[in-house]
Design brief:
By secondary structure, the protein is mostly helical. It folds into 3 domains: 64 residues, no CATH class; 83 residues, no CATH class; 78 residues, no CATH class. It is built from 10 helices and 4 strands, in the order ββαααααααβαααβ. Helix 9 crosses helix 10. The chain starts with a strand and ends in a 5-residue tail after the last strand.
Length: 253
């Protein structure tokens, strides 16, 4: 039989200081198998002995289907990169190709992918910094220029679109204490964040044409969506923001 998953159990009698002993469950394998059968047929009827079980199973099947769809989308996105590399990795592992030969053979698909995501200005910057001759086409650029240009292009796109780092509750206070600082004050600024995000999104929308000319359609729309999501989540209480005031403690750092 397939090895069962390990899930937290209840009252097994073998509890230790770290909590209840784990209990194995067959459900993860059942759910995966049921979804496999659903995808293989046009119509599927699943019988359950309670409404609660049926609702739980339907919810879990939807989650699994979404996870598979996301994985397939990611694989399709990077297929042009991964597929050529499959024929390079094994010969290198078998010793039929040196590491240098493998890197040279694998560079073109990786370079092509990076160049599609990299701004010309960033490429020009590293060509200048590396004192490289101006190439006839980007495909002639060495990887030592393409890789850093790709990295800063991705960082720039991330900052333009905006992002948040989600951390557990009270995590910030733990970091402050670990740095040898003493927390003096803490203020919830979530309402201000929601208001600022909404007003900034509206202000940008009023200058849509000019900003699209500067940022490009894709970047403009992505940042507008970011402000809209922040405003909505903050208003709903699903996203919070705090301001901390701390001072150096007695412990030296």
């Amino acid at each position: 039989m397939t090895e069962l998953d390990t899930r937290p159990g209840r009252g097994t009698g073998d509890d230790d200081e770290e909590g209840p002993a784990p209990k194995r469950s067959i459900w993860p394998h059942v759910e995966e198998r049921v979804l496999d059968l659903i995808e293989q047929h046009k119509s599927t009827i699943v019988f359950a002995n309670s409404r609660r079980l049926a609702e739980r199973l339907c919810g879990r099947l939807n989650e699994l289907a979404a996870e598979r769809a996301e994985l397939e989308a990611a694989l399709d996105l990077f297929a042009d990169v991964y597929e050529p590399l499959f024929g390079i990795v094994q010969p290198a592992l078998d010793g039929r190709m040196t590491v240098t030969e493998a890197l040279d053979a694998g560079a073109p698909p990786v370079r092509d992918f990076m160049l599609k995501q990299t701004r010309e200005a960033d490429l020009a910057l590293f060509v200048e910094l590396g004192h490289l001759p101006r190439p006839a086409s980007p495909n002639e650029l060495p990887m030592r220029a393409v890789i850093p240009a790709f990295a800063i292009s991705e960082l720039k796109t991330g900052f333009q679109m905006g992002f948040f780092l989600f951390v557990p509750v009270d995590y910030d206070e733990q970091v402050i204490a670990a740095c040898g600082l003493r927390l003096i004050a803490k203020e919830d600024t979530t309402p201000q964040m929601a208001d600022i995000a909404a007003r900034r999104g509206a202000a940008r929308a009023a200058r849509r044409a000019a900003l699209i000319e500067i940022e490009g359609q894709e970047t403009f729309e992505a940042q507008q969506e970011f402000f809209a999501v922040v405003a909505r989540l903050a208003t709903e209480g699903a996203l919070s923001r705090f301001v901390y005031v701390a001072e150096r403690g007695e412990r030296s750092t």
